[in-house]
Amino acid sequence: MNKLWNKLKRWFIEMGSPPLFYNWSSKIIPWLGLLTLLVLLIGLYWGLFVAPMDYKQGDVYRIIYIHVPSAILGESIFIFMAICGFINVIWRAKISGMMLKAAAPIGMSFTLLVLVTGSVWGKPTWGTWWVWDARLTSTLILFFIYAALIGLHSTIEDKTKADRAVSILSIVGVAIIPVIKKSVDWWQTLHQPSTFTITSSPSMSPDMYIPLLVCLIGFYLFFAYMLTLNLRNVVIERESSKNWVKHVMDQESK
Amino acid sequence: MHGSISGWLTIILKRDLLIAFRKSSTYITPLVFFLIVVTFFPLALGPQESLLSSLAPGVIWIAALLASLLAVETIFSDDFRDGTLDEFFISLEPSFILVFAKVLIHWLITGLPILFASLIAAIVLYLPFESFIPMLLSLILGTSFMSLLGALGAALSLGRSAILSAIIVLPFSIPTLLMGTSVISSSLTNQDFSGFLMIMGAMLAIGIPLLCLLTVEALLLNYE
Amino acid sequence: MLPNLKVENLSCVRSNKVVFENINFEVFPGENLEIIGSNGSGKTTLLRTILGLIKPEKGIINWLDENDKFNDFRTFECFYQGHQLGIKNLLTVYENLKLTHGAKGMDENKIYECLERVGLMRINELASNLSVGQRKRISIARWLVKNFKIYFIDEPFSALDDEATSMIEHLIQELNSKGCSFVITGHRPSQVKANRISI
């Protein structure tokens, strides 16, 4: 047990070194990609075609299989970024800063997906393209915060400095997100006592629940895959002056 | 050296307030901007009393948010340029207390004038007199938090465009906006607004140490 | 006698480029250090790294405390004057002195003394109305507000005429005799009695 723990610790510390990470990720990428594809295909097919129809909303509710996992991913990625940010600020581990940079566009895309699928869900069910319900509104604000983070990063020329700046902001972000959600909830009940949420799922039977879970796992795998790909690019870009990068570039061009 | 923390604090306060009052635009601009934004609403939406008084909480708060963002850029830029900021970090005084001093000064120059201007806004937007005190209380807590956020935004975007600090700060100020307007709206319908005030107070209590510390980190980034 | 500041094998890297490396020196009380280098050679970065504004890539910076022990943190105040002088334009000469760190509780006469010593007469004039040379004198007057153990001055002699230069040289000598040290930078060696290193 102890040996396993030590091995894990060593792997963790080694991953902090960019060249080792790059090496390890080159081997992992194809398998991760395959697994992601598999799980996503299974989950989406199951949810979009096989799972039973909802008697209230018909087939439209199936958008839930994309909408809900995207929402969960959008928020999880933000928490992930805040953890990386915290590590970067306190311990100055450059790779955690790079992870932040790699994860941000993915998180923002998922958040955008939530808004779009929410919209698409709303039109046939409630007749409008947008509804200021608590969930969608908080997601919109989360989207703005992602935009602020990415915008801040692009303004700073020195990219390691940019990573640290965004790390600082992500810490504030993760602290304020719960406050935002609570206050948006409050705001909604204050102005719309008869609350109906577009994003509330009907009480789900296991026939619907399990494919949702599979999709969620698939989305998480997709995030891991994209994160690894992105991180590889970021690592190469940041360390471009180092020898190991030149070595790798030579290898890959052969 | 003990007890010199308050010494350093008083020096910074005296210094920055003296400078701020020498250049009256520093504290006049936020006030005027606030009033202009408030004026746009009746101009754009019509002067009916019922409409304006129902919009009043939101309008006053939006104007307060935008006006307090206006002066944010200058919190650290002057000191950065003339070398005074270096002194902060080189001295043995805890840097976050010095950042707190700068936040306090920003509030005195921006938040306080907005408080006075809000009374004028409340009158022209037909806000009932009973809501004045809740409005002032919410503005005191809210504009202080804005100054805190603004300091972080200023530190992160030091030397870059002013709009950037606004884009960083605005999404984070949404809870303040929602809480602040809820305080005033609740007072209009005679509901209890103390809960919202307590939350704003709690945000301030947690925000002061957290944001001042993070602002110190952000300022140090500019030296790398 | 022990040095107040000891630096060993200091190196600093910025944006993947080495700014300086292998810097070693000691600063004893009453003795000076002069850092010579051309523009952009990293003199300002070196001062800032020693004072803790920038994190070095490697190396040791040791400060002496009251118990004659060396620590990697500082326990005494130092004076730093960068290129920008630390002068507030919208304050008068007098206010710039009065509202400077270390001046707490200083009475008026002492402030007038400091100003006289550097030859500044227009005490109630706004700093923005003065010439560069006169503003430099305000900054130098700030040196006298308190006796700091070590003064870090970035390019003290730039943009100064002969009279001002010799005034500074005498001032440094005077402060040396009180046990204060100066770490100064410049493009070429000055007349100040100091150990010299080049970047």
Features:
heterotrimer; A: 254 residues; mainly alpha; globular; C: 199 residues; alpha/beta; Rossmann fold; 2 domains; five-stranded parallel beta sheet; four-stranded antiparallel beta sheet; 5 helices; 9 strands
In short:
The complex is a heterotrimer of chains A (254), B (224) and C (199). Chain A is an all-alpha fold. Helices cover 81% and strands 0% of the residues of chain A.
Characterize the structure shown.
The complex is a heterotrimer of chains A (254), B (224) and C (199). Chain A has one domain. In chain A, 81% of the residues lie in helices and 0% in strands. Chain A is globular and about 60 Å long. In chain A, 36% of the residues are buried. The model of chain A has no long low-confidence stretch (mean pLDDT 86). The longest helix of chain B is centred in the middle third of the chain and has 30 residues. Chain B is elongated. With 224 residues, chain B is mainly alpha-helical. Chain C has two domains: 130 residues, Rossmann fold; 61 residues, no CATH class. In chain C, strands 6-7-8-3-9 form a five-stranded parallel β-sheet, with helices on both faces. Chain C has a four-stranded antiparallel β-sheet with strand order 2-1-4-5, covered by helices on one side. The longest helix of chain C is centred in the C-terminal third of the chain and has 16 residues. The mean pLDDT of chain C is 87. Classes of the chains: A mainly alpha (254), B mainly alpha (224), C alpha/beta (199). Chains in contact: A-B, A-C, B-C. Chains A and B meet through α5 and α6 of A and α8, α9 and α10 of B.
